[in-house]
Design brief:
The protein is α/β, with parallel strands linked by helices. It contains 9 helices and 7 strands, in the order αββαβααβααβαβααβ.
Length: about 260
């Protein structure tokens, strides 16, 4: 086959600026998330921060069961798997034994806000100096698309074929709002990754959370990310992002919920 590009001058390539490149802290391996899933974006943001802060050799991530469990396949840091819902308990043990380490949990809503509610509440009540990253996509993504504690009223899932009925299933839990009331919560915020602007805000929130731990400012830094599950929602990636912006954030408004008092 003839190479028609041979001999063509490409001097313009020398003047191009790098807009983005994968951080070396993110392993060079193909991700197994469904197309459009927000997990991959949040993985990248966390690993960018680890690289920028120069804490790769000090950071330990804890991931439990669910789609979050795949995190240790992609993050080039020390990772510890935990039983379903027990990530914050494991993170507590790691941080207390190795207080100089930067410890974070990476959990979905079916994990953190359902089977792990007890661990979540008591970790925050103790004011452990860790970061908790909470991916809220309102569904059990890996295990079949069942209703989660955060599923919106009227939403159809594999276990709510007629939509979530609050008289039968209860109300969606605003877990970030609930834990923000606890003294052990130092910083609580809710962000998303549906747009480039939203991604930048989420990165700033994660930077603040990790800075809090590095500087030992005390208490849990909790970052909720309202994300999507195109496969579980039976939507295209674009439709799922539009659904978040037009519907979900009306119930889960974005922004800081609890910030440290000045002075």
């Amino acid at each position: 086959m003839t190479d028609f590009t041979e001999g063509i001058q490409c001097d313009y390539l020398d003047t191009m600026n790098t807009v983005w490149e994968s951080p070396p802290t993110l392993l060079d391996t193909q991700m197994h998330y469904c197309p459009g899933c927000g997990h991959s974006v949040v993985h990248r943001l966390i690993m960018e921060i680890v690289q920028e802060f120069g804490i790769q050799d000090k950071t330990i991530g804890v991931a439990p069961v669910g789609c979050a469990v795949l995190a240790y396949n992609y993050m080039d840091i020390d990772m510890q798997q935990a039983a379903h819902g027990r990530a914050t308990a494991v993170a507590t043990g790691i941080k207390r034994v190795l207080p100089d380490r930067i410890v974070f949990t990476y959990q979905g809503d079916g994990d953190l806000a359902a089977i792990g509610t007890g661990e979540t509440i008591h970790t925050i009540n103790r004011g452990e100096n860790i970061v908790m990253v909470f991916i809220n996509n309102g569904i059990y993504g890996m295990t079949g698309g069942q209703m989660a504690p955060t599923t919106l009223e009227g939403s159809v899932t594999s276990t709510t074929l007629d939509g979530r009925n609050t008289s039968l299933h209860g109300f969606p839990i605003k877990i970030a709002d609930m834990i923000a009331l606890m003294p052990g919560a130092y910083y609580v915020t809710r962000q998303s990754v549906t747009t480039a602007k939203a991604v930048r805000k989420t990165k700033k929130a994660l930077q603040k959370a990790f800075t809090n731990q590095i500087e030992s400012k005390g208490g849990v830094s909790f970052v909720e990310v309202v994300s999507n599950c195109p496969a579980g929602w039976k939507m295209t990636p674009l439709e799922s992002n539009e659904w978040i912006d037009e519907t979900i954030i009306k119930h889960y408004p974005l922004g800081d919920i609890k910030v440290p008092e000045k002075g």
